[in-house]
Amino acid sequence: MLILGIESASLVASAALVQDGALLAEYTLNSKKTHSQTLLPMIQEITEAAGIRERLSELDGIAVAKGPGSFTGLRIGSATAKGLAMTLDKPILAVPTLDAMAFQLYGIQGLVCPMMDARRAQVYTGIYFFGEDTRGAFPADVKIDDHTYMHTLLSQTPMGVEELMEKLNQLGQMVTFLGDGCPVYKEQLQTGLRIPFRFAPSFAARQRAGAVAELGAIYLAQGAAETADEHKPEYLRKSQAERLRDEKRSS
Amino acid sequence: MSEEKVTILAIESSCDETAAAVVENGRNVLSSVISTQIALHKEYGGVVPEIASRKHIEKITSVVREALAMSGKEISECDAIAVTYGPGLVGSLLVGVAFAKSMAFAASKPLIGVHHIEGHIAANFIAHQELAPPFCCLVVSGGHTHLVVVKDYGEYEILGRTRDDAAGEAFDKVARAIGLGYPGGPKIDKLTRTEGNPLAIPFPQAKIEDAPYDFSFSGIKSAVLNYLNHAQMTGEEVNRADLAASFQHAVVSALVSKAILATKEHGFKTLAMAGGVAANSYLRAQMDAACKKEGISLYYPEPILCTDNAAMIGAAAYYEYKKGVRHGLDLNAMPNLKLGER
Questions:
Q1: What is the ipTM of this complex?
Q2: CA-nearest residue of chain B to A76?
Q3: Phi/psi at B135 (nearest 5 deg)?
Q4: Domains assigned to chain A
């Protein structure tokens, strides 16, 4: 099974090819350059380097981080995935951004807490852990392999950091953080957390399309695919105009 | 020997219309699909960029799919993929640009980025098979007011432009002020077709020193707002139709007199109009009359080709294609792209 993964939810742009459990190629760029200029040339480069540029029809699906994240970033990834999926007649595997980030720390002890800076004093976050089959006990479970499930204690959501810390303190387990919210809220975490915690090392600290592609492969095997027409980003937030309108209506 | 046919799939998403078309040799429209978002933006009184961008991403595949199906062409039968890359709303543009690039990559087709206003001008090539450069063109829309010489396909000389509001923008603002709602241009056009005296209220014409082809509409707009304020304070009743018709007359008179002046002074016998405001029936009638008087041939497309569409992008792209223009997969949206800029 050959999957192209696309990640453009934050400042990081990343593209990867995964085939039957092997990462064939991955290109991850953490720069201020716009995704509009980098993402597709990166996809072109990895498909060429991996020798599948002329065999794109052999792809089994396009996996994309569907959100949350930068609205514009999400749309660039989504539009790119849709153009590929429609032209090549392939399914889209829409992977929650924070699920894929948590998956980067597969097998780690304790809790995994990806956090993206969501501005307005919030982070996009979720709480995950890897363990045995305890299906049904948590909001969402993804079977990764015979011995490992990725369980979700808190599904991805925008949340204030104080509220997140309170939840983590209550859970009382060691936490590993990753994501671009870490440098922004590091001091607050150091002051507010009463549990042991740590930050993921550089190679796992930001989004990587390899994780998106691998999770996409799992989704495809489990039958959770979308068509190019169906797919759209999941922003988890309304536009500012809608928010102001709703506030006006309720006041 | 007949010339080889060039088939272009074109995509346009610069504002609040998601559109796709398949065009042959720049003049023959095989299909043109437009998904408009007007209803969505109505309650906000104008286009909300984030809402527009969200709708584009939801619509883009079905619109492109429909355009291909209606044309009877497969993507593999198209010679190139064209897309509007500016000017416009950056979030909206990015959806079309990212999607078109991705299609071009997946289908291994050349990519051609098209200037939105050059597209509007090229709509005349679809509507009038005999029209060819050089000619003078008045481009009037919600975002643009330009007087240009179309020297050749894809070659422009800008003679004049608006110093402040675009003509369509002034229509929208005045329509909102007198309670006609959004979109203002078509609402004012509709009202004044049956009601209103265009000479009821004299509004000032802006004179711009040393720039005979430049426009200014903010003065007229302010005069309308002042008129409304004054009437409100003194308790006078406002005849909305007279006010709308008089405002429209002031804007149209400026457009007509400067377009005619430019055409004559540059020795052209042909004038074209393009853009959403070129669908305005009062402008068409006044320009028709003025051109007849001066012996100028006037061209403008039917209303559906005046407002945003992708067929016009396919038309403009054909001439770029013939010149060998190709864009890379790093093509970016350019919200402030200037006319003639490459």
A1: 0.96
A2: B98
A3: -160, 170
A4: 2-97+207-240 (3.30.420.40), 105-199 (3.30.420.40)
